[in-house]
Amino acid sequence: MIDPAPFDAAPFDPAPFDTALFDTVLFDLDGTLSDSAPGILGCLRQAFDELGVPWPDEAVARSLLGPPFWHTLPPLVGADRTERAIEIYREHYVVGGGMFQTRAYDGVAPLLQSLRSQSVRLAVATSKPEIHAGTIVEHLGFSEHFDFVCGDTLDGARDSKALVIAEALNRMGDPPAGTVLMVGDRSHDVLGAAANGLHSVGVLWGYGSATELHNAGAAAVIERPAQLNELLRP
After folding, report:
1. Active-site residue (options: 28, 30, 35, 185)
2. Which of 52, 67, 100 is the last residue of a domain?
3. Known catalytic residue: 8?
4. Could you tell me if 140 and 34 are in contact, meaning their C-beta atoms sit under 8 angstroms apart?
């Protein structure tokens, strides 16, 4: 299975995990806000078929959900064909409508509404191209909850979660690290947060595992959205 951890690895010397201090929360998109696996994997498989590349087994395919394709696809399609694979994938994902094959996880909408009602600032930080992420957040009906939707550029200039989070923090006025929490389902969310001096909470309803999230250094791992509200506002 492809391990995304090395792409965002960085030393981390955090302040104490004091949940009372957090007034800003960054959310990953795929696997955290919504289940987008059918659209992503379906379109990616079409790209593999068009390139004549064998589709990997289920475990490897699932490991592609979350980390940037710029890093995870070269071992499977070859470095020389990665850009073309992404182009074909996007043709199916955007033009073919694969991006709308997603649904919000149960409990996420009430969580966002509750945090907003408590004046918590919210933003999306995703490795998905920002132009696509904004459309999906709107499709899910979540736009009103988020100050910003931040993602990668189409050419991969922000090709790690660490860079995406840094850009999101910049747009939010660089709040103190101890007041910002990252929430995501994969190790690269946790490591990207750590690279920016942030704590993170891992979620188990997405595509990662408790072992992956704990090993990456998540301060807490939760099983349902309501637990985040309980954690932040006990």
Report:
1. 28
2. 100
3. no
4. yes
Number of domains in the chain: 2
Tokens 């090395």 belong to which residue? 6
DSSP one-letter code for 53? P
C-alpha dihedral (208, 212, 216, 222), degrees to nearest 10: 60
Which residue's entry shows tokens 């395919």? Answer: 61
Name the nearest CA neighbour of 208 among 81, 65, 52, 29: 65
pLDDT for residue 15: 56
User: What stretches in the chain show pLDDT beneath 50?
Assistant: 1-13
How far apart (Å, rounded) are the C-alpha atoms in residues 126 and 172? 15
For 69-94, write each residue's pLDDT tens digit: 998 999 999 999 999 999 999 999 99
Q: What is the Cβ-side half-sphere exposure of residue 68, based on CA atoms within 13 angstroms?
A: 28
Transcribe 179-192 into DSSP letters: GEEEEESSHHHHHH
State which residues form the domain around 25.
17-35+103-232
pTM here? Answer: 0.89
Within-domain flag for 8: no
For the stretch 184-223, pLDDT in tens is 999 999 999 999 999 999 999 999 999 999 999 999 999 9
